[in-house]
Design a protein that fits this description.
It contains twelve helices and eight strands. By secondary structure, the protein is of the alpha/beta class.
């Protein structure tokens, strides 16, 4: 019997504080949008609208919080987020704290109050906990040398949904910014991939071309972040301007 092809999950990172942009990307067929409160211009006043704009699609709204902060996580989830992406996780202890922030007691320490978020999922307020509460995702970003040093222990933490390799951040942290063929960086990535594969923890990474997507899939990645909204917009706009410049030359 032939092996069934794996479903590769695609996502976009949303740095523009706009429900219109998020809705367009969700309807483009992405499996998820990562609403970016770490490096993007997204504040709490835009968060609910961006999450809600994914309703009616198969696209999950995930929020990358600015830091491992209980208040930020609680707000994002209570607005209806399907999961949280945590930056700068360096140890198994920090990873366990991330999981706890996304889980209700007794498994975690999330406070209960999905007064707004239950509507995003089409369930009643009373049904949110039994139907949605246990489905919340917890993704940990691997982007520091310390995380690589502790990667085997991080992979062993129960409740992590996925590990996301932030390759540019990791290369900067390791003193070789953007040098993805640097031996130090290559060894770090290989260690990450070995540990995650051995622990059967899904991996994701940024892949900004078809070649990079193919490369990631061949190395066992189950998720690819295929674009940043603001960079995609700027690239398309720059190309359009060049059309006019070439005609007028």
């Amino acid at each position: 019997m032939s092996e069934q092809p794996r479903k590769i999950r695609t996502s976009f990172i949303c740095t523009i504080p706009s429900a219109v942009v998020t809705q367009a990307l969700a309807h483009a067929g992405a499996d998820a949008v990562v609403i970016d409160q770490e490096h993007g211009a997204v504040g709490p006043e835009n968060l609910h609208a961006m999450i809600a704009s994914t309703a009616g699609t198969n696209c999950l709204p995930v929020v990358r919080v600015g830091k491992r902060d209980e208040a930020m996580v609680k707000l994002a989830l209570d607005m209806g987020a399907a999961g949280i992406t945590f930056p700068l996780v360096n140890s198994a202890e920090e990873a366990r704290d991330c999981v706890a922030l996304t889980r209700y007691p007794p498994q975690g320490k999330r406070g209960f109050g999905p007064f707004v978020g239950h509507s995003r999922w089409g369930v009643s307020f009373d049904d949110y906990l039994p139907k949605i509460g246990s489905m919340i995702g917890c993704t940990v970003l691997i982007e520091t040398g310390a995380a690589i040093d502790n990667i085997e222990a991080i992979c062993a933490v129960e409740g992590i949904s996925a590990l996301a390799l932030a390759r540019l951040d990791l290369s900067v942290a390791m003193g070789c910014p953007g040098e993805y063929d640097n031996p130090v960086f290559v060894r770090a990535v290989e260690r990450f991939e070995r540990a995650a594969t051995a622990a059967n923890v899904p991996m994701s990474t940024v892949a900004l071309s078809e070649h990079e997507v193919q490369s990631a899939v061949s190395r066992g990645y189950m998720g690819v972040m295929v674009g940043f909204d603001v960079l995609m917009l700027k690239s398309a706009a720059t190309t359009a301007v060049k059309w006019a410049e070439r005609v007028s030359m």
